[in-house]
Structure formats: structure tokens, C-alpha cells
Design brief:
Blueprint lengths: L1 H10 L4 H8 L7 E10 L2 E10 L2 E3 L11 E2 L4 E2 L11 H9 L5 H22 L14 H16 L5 E2 L3 E3 L3 E4 L2 E4 L3 H6 L5 E3 L9 H10 E3 L6 E10 L10 E9 L3
Parallel strand pairs: 6-11, 7-10
Antiparallel strand pairs: 1-2, 2-3, 4-5, 8-9, 12-13
Helix pairs in contact: 1-5, 2-5, 3-4, 4-5, 4-7
Amino acid sequence: SGDMILGALIDAGLNPNLLLKELSKLSIEGLSIDTNHAMRKGISCKRVRVKICNKNIDFEDEHLLQTPIDKKNSTKETSSDHTKFSHPNKIINFIQESDLKPTVRKKSIAIFQRLINAEASVHGCDSNDVHLHEVGTIDAIVDVVGSVIGLDLLQIDKVFSSPLYLGTGFVSCAHGRYPVPVPGVLELCKNIPCIQTDIREELVTPTGAAIITTLACSFDSIPVFQQKGIGYGAGSRDLKEQPNVLRVRLGELSAK
């Protein structure tokens, strides 16, 4: 998931203060980030939480407790549910009108556009008619944009991914009780190497799938490289089958 990506990048050397400084360009009022040490099956890792107006919000929280400023109207918008940014154009415009670096805006929008297209395919509708529920919350926006910012600050040029490991079971979402992997994840993972497991948990979320499948250039064996850093991002749950962590390895490609 997106919070695990942020945690892994911070554990690998990303300065959380610099990350927050760049995220402030989104003009999300009262935004801060808590980074705490966590243990998952004996592995030391980083757990990331978002704070808005001094209220802790886990990345899995389904309620939008604070909304950003609408730059066009300069008025605050409030909502008690997590569908505030459900219209795709609202999210795209929100990112496009921010003061983020052009490259960060472009990649962040590409990730959300991929999410939008996947949801349109799943629900059999036009992309303009898609309603982004869980992936339209403030925390999902921070997930996506924060991941792109983190890679930019770490000066990462290429992302290589292993095949994606998928869980099973069921999960509750805005449309009801869905089987895992949820349809959006399966759509995002078309033509992507995946390994199905028997773990009855959601191992890949739509936001995480969108980030990785948009930014990674391959999902195969890691190329030869000189390893410079390692980071572990903690998930919210402690799985019995395996460490619930995302591992990031930083390095330089070896010259051939």
C-alpha cells in the first residue's frame, strides 16, 4: 500500500521533513506526518501515519476529516465522508494547480489517471463518470504524491519491481464486500507478473498497485546493481504468515 511505500523510502534515507515540505505545496491545511519505529516478525521498519489538525489518521482510515483549500474559490470545503474528491477531474485539477515540481505533478497525475481508467473499465463507464471512493481521500493523495516526491528527493531514475504477491479472502469497501484481489487491483495488474498466495489479507491495494505499475519499468529479476541503501515500510497489520513489510533497495546500476 501507499503508506508502506512512504515508510520504506523514509527507512531507506528519505528525510521526512523534506517530504513534508514538498507535500505542503498541495495546500492541505494542517497536514503533518508521523514516522514511528515498528517491528514486523523481527524486522525493524518504519510505520507512517498522517496527522491533520492534530488528529491521527491511519492510511486505512475511511473518513475524510479535513479537506484542502479550493484555490480557485479560496474557500474551505468540508465533508464528513471519504467521497469528497470522488470525481476524477477534481483530483487531477487539484494536483495540476499545486506548486509541486512539474515532473512530480506529471507522474502523480499519471498514477491517478491509471486508477481512473481501471475503475472505468471495472464499472463499465466513461472515465469522466468514475467515482473514486477509497482512492479519492486525502490519505490516498498523500500516498501517491508523497511516493513520487520521495523518489524525486532520493534522485531515483528508475524503479524495478518484483512480481506482485496477491492475497485472497474478502474486504469491505464503498461498493460492499469484495473478493481479494479487488477488481481494481486485477485491472491495474493486467500484463503484470503476479503471484497468487493463500494469505487471507489484501496484500496489494488499488493505490499501491497504481503507484507501482505506473512507475516501475520491469517486474522481473533485479538487474545487477551496487546496493547503497535498504528500507522497510510497515503495514498496519502483523500477518502470521510473513512479515507485513515492503522492502526497498536503493543503488546504482552496474556498468556493463
